[in-house]
Amino acid sequence: MNAITKLSQNAHWFLRAAIASVFIYHGLDKFPKLEGMAAMLDMPVAVLFLVAVAETIGGILLLLGGLSKDWMTRLGALMLIPVMLGAIFMAHWGQWSFMPSETHPMGGMEFQVTLLFISLYLLVKGNAVNGIKTAPALS
User: Going by C-beta distance under 8 Å and a sequence separation of 6 or more, which residues neighbour residue 86?
Assistant: First the structure.
């Protein structure tokens, strides 16, 4: 049990790696396809460009925040929250399952809600998840 307790100080990396890898990949993947994706989603190219920037930089900040400053973690998470809210309400609302269907060809909101809540957690907790800030022990 002692090994798990020691490992728990670095467990935040499981969340950081999972969410950062998703957002960095999806952000970078949008840049070469901006015009086509914008047309498919019926949104201006400039808005999709900002989404790609937020996803990429937000994911990078979550990683850097784990190595450095609390504000990086919080800003990275804050950048991702509106992206997920937009995805949920513009493309995935009305179906929970992530599987594509006739009414939701891009799938439901299950995955996006999960990413939203992980982002909210990191925004609220900041680097307290990795021991940089710790609450005093209760006696």
Answer: 51
